[in-house]
Amino acid sequence: MSKTITGFSKLTKDAKINWLAKNFFNNTEDGILILKQYENKNEKLQRLHDEFIENTISNFYVPYAVAPNFIINGKPYVIPMAIEESSVVAAASLVAKFWSTRGGFKAKVISTLKVGQVHFMYTGSFKDLKIYFKKSKNDLLKITDPITANMRKRGGGIVNIELRDKTSKLDNYYQLHVTFETADSMGANFINSCLEAIATTFKNDEIKIVMSILSNYVPECLVHAEVSCKVEDFFDVEPEAYAQKFIQAIQIANVEPYRAVTHNKGIMNGIDAVVLATGNDFRAIAAGAHAYAAKSGIYKSLTNAKIKDGIFHFWIEIPLSLGTIGGLTKLHPLAKLSLEILQNPSAEELMQIIAVAGLSQNFAALKALTTTGIQQGHMKMHFMNILNQLEANLHEKEILIKDFEGKTVTHNAIADALHQLRIKKQR
Ligand code: MEV
Description:
The chain is an alpha+beta fold and 427 residues long.
């Protein structure tokens, strides 16, 4: 038995699975069966997924759901979400309904600039480098002409190329800091192709290129989303006190990074779910959002709240680099369908929708945390996971769901109740 292999990628899918099964599965037949069960019976669809990445052996499902009743800038939306965490979609639906009777969400895009950099080393004088850059700038733009032609037709392209001296941070380190507009595409391939062409043209005997790559830090690709209502409409009992507590929860996140990370993680529950459902890159979005949260040098909340003139305001400001064309957005049939459900938004509209999804999750989390605590809702949603884990049948599920109405849900309590139910049945 060998746990290493050469030429794995050249094997057929079945040969890959057999090698894995022989060397790693506890039960060969069971393991193979699981992989086959998750394989799509539609050969064309399966091939499409196989070809997204290398060494595909099956599919890994994540639930795909929708949260209805969002009103954003007066327009109703149903928001598709791909996520495994039990409470996220339920929370989104509840929050959508709550704010739909309080004027809905307002959102606006602040800016859409994206960034890419050519990083290089240079030991000569900065003055000479500046002269060389000035002389080359037109050539740098010209070399990208064929790459940017289509993008320019869609209103995008290179906005600026700037030479930056970074030698105070790292000896001999300079960069070309390039800004882009990428219209309705996320633009990763476009940006990277432009940068590589620029680097090839810019380098000379003295300029040693280290790398050329887009940045996922996009503080100038920014969207703002908010809700507001009269303080008295915020909560049924003691609304002023609860609104204050809600604001304090955000203040705590702003001074306590341990709390801020969890606070923002909750926001990303909503954001990543829609990013994934629309075929966008959730790792890029998460990296950019967390970097933005730390832009002051201290990691803080991405949301904010205040009371002014008797009105409760709650808002988010977050960088989101998204596409509604290109990448997986039209290639993955479910991503395409998600965009259809969202009424085929532009990238800017999608930025607004996704910011709202993040704001909603934070609203649900803070409302629960500052009132009943989070576990009540979480365990309610987790209830079915526990029942499935304990292999409860349909009949047992029905009985236990009824039995636990209004009761505290814990894994042990459910296991005990199921055990009792089965004993009772045997008698
Ligand atoms: C859980 O996935 C997310 C929360 O922890 C977020 C928060 O604490 O604000 C509930």
